[in-house]
Amino acid sequence: MNRSVLVIEDRQDIANLIKLHLMDLSCDVQLAFDGITGLAEAETKTYDLIILDLMLPGMDGLEVCRRVRGKSNYIPILIVTAKATELDRVLGLELGADDYLTKPFSILELVARVKALFRRMDALAANTVSSTLKPIRSGDIVVDPAKREVTLGNKPVSLTFKEFDLLLHFARNPGRVYSRLQLLDLVWGYGHDGYEHNVNCHINRLRAKIEKSHAKPKFILTVRGVGYKFADAMATEAA
Question: Are 56 and 35 in contact (CB under 8 A)?
Answer without folding.
Answer: yes
